[in-house]
Design goal:
The chain is mainly β. Helices cover about 5% and strands about 40% of the residues. The protein has two domains: about 70 residues, no CATH class; about 70 residues, no CATH class. Strands 1-4-3-2 form a four-stranded antiparallel β-sheet, with no helix packed on it. Strands 5-8-7-6 form a four-stranded antiparallel β-sheet. The longest helix is centred in the first third of the chain and has 4 residues.
Length: about 140
């Protein structure tokens, strides 16, 4: 996918969340390439940065670069019973109100209930003790 991103953060490997267009984007001639190619609330990783740049009133330095992006792989905790590399799953956040050290993996940014994801890598169950008693495995997902 091609999009535009602020010149100061346009670096290969940068991961970002698309939070939707700003009000200034409504009349911008680059809207289709810049914000309409991305899904709001999703995480992306910059694969390549092109040489060309454009003016943009909302980014620091008032410049954006053309970049190639992919949806980012996301590390998460899932039920161990279905955590097989290469398998597909429907991601669902656990019913949990405990504020533990694993919360960011049970409720990862950019993943929502019922997202269809592929398990790219199972990182295992070691060092994961769930206060609610869930049997969890740490995985890398591509959705």
């Amino acid at each position: 996918m091609i999009t535009l991103i602020g010149k100061k953060i346009a670096k290969k490997g940068t991961v970002f969340m698309h939070c939707g267009p700003a009000k200034e984007c409504k009349t911008c001639r680059f809207r289709g390439t810049c914000v309409e190619s991305l899904k709001e609330g999703r995480m992306y990783i910059i694969k390549n940065v092109k040489d060309s740049e454009q003016s943009c009133p909302i980014h620091e330095g008032r410049k954006v670069k053309v970049v190639e992006v992919d949806e980012a792989k996301i590390t998460a905790l899932v039920d161990s019973k279905g955590a097989f590399e290469g398998s597909m799953l429907s991601f669902n956040q656990p019913e949990c109100d405990v504020d533990c050290k694993h919360k960011d993996l049970c409720f990862p940014e950019g993943l929502y209930n019922d997202d269809k994801c592929k398990i790219i890598k199972n990182l295992g169950k070691s060092n994961i003790s769930c206060e609610k008693g869930y049997d969890l495995s740490k995985v890398i997902l591509k959705c």
